[in-house]
UniProtKB/TrEMBL annotation:
Keywords for this protein: Cytoplasm, Lipopolysaccharide biosynthesis, Nucleotidyltransferase, Transferase
Gene coding for it: kdsB
Identification of the protein by name: 3-deoxy-manno-octulosonate cytidylyltransferase
Subcellular location(s) of the protein: Cytoplasm; Membrane
Similarity-based family: Belongs to the KdsB family.
Function in brief: Activates KDO (a required 8-carbon sugar) for incorporation into bacterial lipopolysaccharide in Gram-negative bacteria.
Top enzyme class: transferase
Gene3D superfamilies noted in UniProt: Spore Coat Polysaccharide Biosynthesis Protein SpsA, Chain A
InterPro entries: Cytidylyl_trans (IPR003329), KdsB (IPR004528), Nucleotide-diphossugar_trans (IPR029044)
Annotated NCBIfam families: kdsB (TIGR00466), PRK05450.1-5 (NF003952), PRK13368.1 (NF009905)
Length: 255
């Protein structure tokens, strides 16, 4: 059965590296609008931009997208999405996909895939995505989050460290063998609204704080995270000035 789902795009105005990032122009439109356009192509029944900044609400409305104001003191995008879910009064079984506002190139098929994965795995509270790692630099890069899965394809753990750890190869300072089956985590999530209501009540976990990975809170408290495997990495989000210039160049070539 085809999944029915909603997309919420958390768009916090403050950014240390790119001030006002959601409203930065990409091909004649604000970045957050580009992300919303991709989300609207995913088959989502509803797309909402959630923000703490009135000009972002105005930009959304100007381009025909629904937006809502949320509190400015949220610690994470998940908390902001949980507020939206409560505002909207969504039923427990509603599937809500978190699409970041700095992902103007996110493939609509990836959004749909994560929502479908959660729909097809009723034992999971969350679904996310990963793709295979094929190079040593990515395996060892702490800015690239790795994941290890169980037999059912659910997450066992996420880490910035190289996992699974190829003991014999690394003990001899050798490259990781291809059979290590390393997976890179893609930062997109689908949640059930019932979990979003619970998330804010869960105490932060020590492993979450050590790794700086909020999804570890759910694992620590016993919630299952299903993982959809995609063969290739999606385009990168916009975190730096160089990322912004690249995104602008890509949209320029599409005109």
């Amino acid at each position: 059965m085809k999944a029915i789902f909603k997309v919420v795009i958390p768009a916090r105005f403050a950014s240390t590296r790119l001030p006002g990032k959601p409203l930065l122009d990409i091909g004649g439109k604000p970045m957050v609008i580009r992300a919303a356009e991709q989300a609207s192509l995913s088959g989502a029944g509803q797309v909402i931009i959630a923000t703490d900044h009135q000009p972002i609400v105005s930009a959304a409305q100007e381009h025909g997208f629904q937006a809502c104001m949320t509190r400015a003191d949220h610690n994470s995008g998940t908390d902001r999405i949980a507020e939206v879910s409560a505002q909207q009064g969504w039923a427990d079984d509603t599937i809500v996909v978190n699409v970041q506002g700095d992902e103007p190139l996110i493939p609509p098929a990836l959004i749909r895939s994560v929502a479908q994965h959660l729909h097809d795995h009723p034992d999971c509270a969350i679904a996310t995505a990963c793709h295979p790692i094929h190079d040593e630099a990515s395996m060892r890069n702490p800015n690239i989050v790795k994941a290890v899965l169980d037999k059912q394809g659910n997450a066992l753990y996420f880490s910035r460290a190289p996992i699974p750890w190829p003991r014999d190869a690394y003990a001899g300072n050798l490259p990781s063998p291809q059979h290590a089956h390393a997976l890179r985590h893609i930062g997109i999530y689908a949640y059930r609204a019932s979990f979003l209501r619970i998330y804010g009540q869960l105490a932060p976990a020590q492993i979450e704080q050590i790794e700086s990975l909020e999804q570890l809170r759910a694992l620590y408290h016993g919630y299952r995270i299903g993982v959809a495997i995609t063969p290739e990495a999606p385009p990168s989000g916009v975190d730096t000035e160089a990322d912004l210039l690249l995104a602008r160049k890509i949209f320029e070539t599409r005109r």
